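sanity check this chain:
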Amino acid sequence: MAAPKFAPNGAREDKFYSSPDVVPDAWTPDRPGVVDGLQPVGSRMGAMGPDQGFALTIANKLAPKLRLADGERLDDAIRGGVVIALRRASLFSRAPVVHDLDIAFTIWGFYDEQPPAELLARRAELFEGVGNVNHHYAEGRKIADLVPESTLRLTPAAAAAAYPADWRSLTGA
């Protein structure tokens, strides 16, 4: 690539970079926000994992497949599914994938045209308003924490095979 006409020709004598005279000490986790060891576990702590926002992108692409009952809101269903999916993804120490959301939506009957009446009642009780993250964080955590770890470790096919006969144990409800 040609240099502009105003650029000086020939070698430059001044340096652009030089190493510091002193090498700094090694980094240590001494800042207040640094977690030393494993992530803490407790009420309202959530499930840590990489790229968690991607779960919303996946959920929005799955939204046309969701079957909502009268009075249910799409944002509540998506938020409820996302918190379950994020918990499942964190069990495997990875970012969320479509299978995490498939399991969440399957066990709560969001893919079913006619889910059991008891499931609809329980879903209405738990999912109402959780789409409003600012005011219903605890309710979203409750949905995620209800689902047993054994359900989260299932494959999507195994979860679909167990639903609807065994929805109570799949959801923890």
In short: The mean pLDDT is 85.
